[in-house]
Amino acid sequence: MGLFDFFKKDKETPAQQASLDAGLEKTKTNFFEQLSKAVVGKSTVDESVLDDLETMLVHADVGIETTVKVIDRIEARVARDKYVSTGELDRILREEIVGLLEDNKSGSTAVLDNAGSSGQPFVIMVVGVNGVGKTTTIGKLAHRFHSAGKKVVLGAADTFRAAAVDQLIIWGQRVGVPVVSHGMNTDPAAVAFDAVQKGVEMGADVIIIDTAGRLHNKVNLMNELSKIKRVMQKMIPDAPHEVLLVLDGSTGQNAFLQAKEFTKATEVTALAITKLDGTARGGVVIGISDQFSIPVRYIGVGEKMTDLQLFDRHTFVNSLFKK
């Protein structure tokens, strides 16, 4: 059994489902208000309805390219079925959004299923700009793994921001897991190496490495992340096993720009999208997954430690369309 096979059985509790529903409330309210306007006075899905639907999806920060893809899919269904009522639009839209997320394996644990099979710790390198909730996401991830009985080590390799190092140490104390830190203005790669070494020595299941969130110079960022990877590979040749990009869902199109820059700087393998509870822009989850062909692994829907949830495309879309 792989290290992360427990995810397959890790169904969200009723309390977590309630948190998800509450976290998506602003997006859902905006979504259905716009959808209602699109179909008012109409009985069938015609060109006018599709134009309004397109505007609605763009306003929900699904993104233009993904919106066009969704509209094309619905147009194809309307042409095939000859008659599609506006009453069916909810169901069709839901199915097409799930289909897009499935195409990009969002919510899939495929990458994680074989983790730990080599007997080595599973290494997650976390990237993202300052302010998106990166360090908090790491703390909540550590809580999730630790609560599942896994040995966790954290590495405070965001050494250019004192608050990041201190914050991760506090999270480690709060969750009850060790944090490797050299303090501020030290070599991030050295921190990462020592964290991986400690994880190997203590027989850890998972090692999570924080990294600096600076985008002012993409070349420097690329070089720094590459160096961190190289030194970790001295201990574990195939590390990191996951490069997790954390994005703030409330920033809408700015999150798209950040994803674009980070995917140029390093090979991002999964996404965590935070702060969905404070925004009506939850459609960003759909658009970013589709446009970058990167699976969404986690979403943040609140402040509690349990509010970083394993993303499930069906649960997400069902909650989004729940009336």
Could you please describe the fold and organization of this structure?
The chain has helices spanning 6-9, 14-23, 25-39, 47-59, 64-81, 89-103, 110-113, 134-147, 162-175, 188-201, 218-233, 253-265, 284-292, 313-320, and strands spanning 122-127, 152-157, 179-180, 206-211, 242-248, 270-274, 296-300, 308-310. An eight-stranded mixed sheet has the order 3-2-4-1-5-6-7-8, with helices on both faces. Mean pLDDT is 86; it is low at 1-9 and 110-115. The longest helix has 18 residues, at 64-81. By secondary structure, it is an alpha/beta fold. Helix 9 (162-175) links the parallel strand 2 and strand 3 (179-180). It contains 14 helices and eight strands. The protein has two domains: 16-103, SRP54, nucleotide-binding domain (Four Helix Bundle (Hemerythrin (Met), subunit A)), CATH 1.20.120.140; 110-312, Rossmann fold.
